[in-house]
Amino acid sequence: MSILKYKEMEKMKKEELESKVKELRMELAKEKSSAAIGGTVKNPGRLGEIRRTIARINTYLNQNG
Hints:
Layout: H1 6-11, H2 14-36, H3 45-64
C-alpha cells in the first residue's frame, strides 16, 4: 500500500475508495497485532502513514459524498 494523494482520489470511484479503506484497515490491524505480541515493527512510521491515509480518504468521501 502507498499513500493516496488527493489527486489520485479524485480519479477513483467511491466503491474503489471504500475498498481501499477496508484494505488499509486490515493492514493496520496486522501491523498493530504484530507489534502487540512483542514482534518488531519493520517500519514504525508505517502505522501513522496508514492511519493518515484512512483519515484522508474518509475526509474526501465525507466532503464529496
